[in-house]
Structures are given as C-alpha cells and as structure tokens.
Specification:
Blueprint lengths: L1 E4 L25 E4 L10 H13 L1 H25 L18 E3 L2 H5 L5 E3 L16 H9 L7 H14 L3 H19 L8 H13 L4 H23 L2
Antiparallel strand pairs: 1-2, 3-4
Helix pairs in contact: 1-2, 5-6, 5-8, 6-7, 6-8, 7-8
C-alpha cells in the first residue's frame, strides 16, 4: 500500500512563473509511506506477538525481514520504472527511510499504515570512515572540485551490484559485462581479467532467459572482484 502524506495543494502554474521575495518559505515536501503487508495472516494474536518479539530479540532476523520488505518494494518501483518509462524512479533502502516500523494489525489498520502493535528498529550508527575509499566526504570534495575524475566503471559496477542485490540477475549480468570491459580499459589488466568468461557466459545466458544458480553465484563473485579492484585503485594500490 502506497500513500502520499502532507502533499501541498496543487496550484495552477503561471506561464510567467512567480516572483520570490527574500523571505520566501521553502515548499512543503510530501512524504510517501509504503506499507508491505503479508498476504497470509497470522493464526492468532499470540502468533503475531511472538513473531514480533522474535524480531526484537534477533538483530539478524530483523535485518533479514527489512531486507525482504525492501526487495518487495524495489520490485514495485522497478515495475513502475519500466511501465512509466521513468529512468529516475530509483530503488530505496531501509537506511534511506525517514522511519521504519515492523508490526501487525487488522486488515484495515495495516492498509492505512497503522498497527495494533509495532516496533521501530534502532538505526545503526554509521561506522567512522577510514581514510581511503572509506572516506567518501574527502573524495566527494575532490570530485566536485575537479581534482579527481570519476571512472565510468565505478558507476557501471554500482549499477550491476544494485541489480544483483535486487534479484534482477539478467539486468545485472548485462550491466556487469559492460562494467568489466570499462574497468579493464580504465584500470588495466588485473584479477578481474580472468572473469571475462564467467561474466560473458552470464550475459549470454541473460539474453536467452533466466540465469542458473551457478551463473548467479559466479557473477556475484565477479562483481565482487570488480568492486575490490576499484577499491584498490582508490586506496592508491
């Protein structure tokens, strides 16, 4: 269930635009609330309460629940992106949400984003960045100031990783083939050179249909080596 909250009233746009004064206030920003609801209900209120307690007691179990929900939401967004031919409809992650809640409630409650009982998982504190690729603010300043140039392979590898993490293995395979060629052209030969066969097989299979579990695993490892090669370059090694 998707619902927009706090949407400002739409105004008819003046062809000449609007003159703004120095004290003009920023426009209100609408918020989209996404509720991912299980199709199968719990057997009883006690079962639902025990499920929620199990998530609160196990951080890994809670993280898996959030990852599953984000995957479902990203499938919705991917479907919208394709149907609307909108390249700017992006995937989301729990870390980017204003708030995340896990809970249970009756049908009408859940449909309206409300709960009988809910839990708000704690936000993980960001790890202190180490100097290197792990100091993104420094590199961001270098890129903005024109003192360093972003490589094409960096963006392409990120796209391949996003597709794989979202379960879009066909797209990830095709993206990885281009990313690998860009990486080898920009960074030169390295451990990833040996992945041409694996990535090529995965991309060829993607053109015919779905990838086998073996090809998926090999592709994931190949993209991991590309990420490592880019990290070594950022570290100066």
């Amino acid at each position: 269930m998707l619902r927009t909250l706090g949407a400002p009233e739409r105004r008819r746009r003046d062809r000449k635009g609007r003159d703004l004064t120095e004290g003009a206030e920023p426009e209100p920003v609408p918020i989209t609330r996404a509720s991912l609801i299980r199709a199968e209900p719990f057997g009883s209120g006690e079962d639902a309460s025990a499920w929620l307690d199990s998530l609160r007691a196990d951080a890994d179990l809670a993280a898996a629940e959030l990852e599953h929900a984000a995957g479902l939401l990203n499938h919705v967004l991917h479907s919208h992106r394709v149907a609307a031919a909108d390249p700017y409809a992006r995937d989301v992650s729990p870390d980017a949400a204003l708030v995340v809640r896990i809970g249970y409630g009756a049908g009408e409650q859940a449909a309206d984003g409300r709960f009988e009982r809910a839990w708000e998982p704690p936000r993980e504190r960001p790890r202190r960045a180490r100097r290197s690729m792990e100091a993104p603010d420094e590199r961001f300043a270098l890129l903005l100031g024109g003192r360093e140039r972003a490589l094409a392979c960096e963006e392409l590898v990120l796209r391949a990783r996003a597709d794989l993490d979202a379960g879009r293995f066909r797209e990830g395979a095709l993206e990885a083939r281009v990313a690998l060629e860009a990486l080898l052209a920009e960074l030169g030969p390295g451990p990833s050179s040996d992945d041409r066969g694996t990535v090529g097989d995965a991309a060829n299979a993607a053109l015919r249909g779905e990838l086998s579990p073996e090809l998926r695993a090999g592709l994931d490892e190949a993209v991991g080596r590309m990420e490592a090669a880019i990290k070594r370059r950022r570290l100066g090694g």
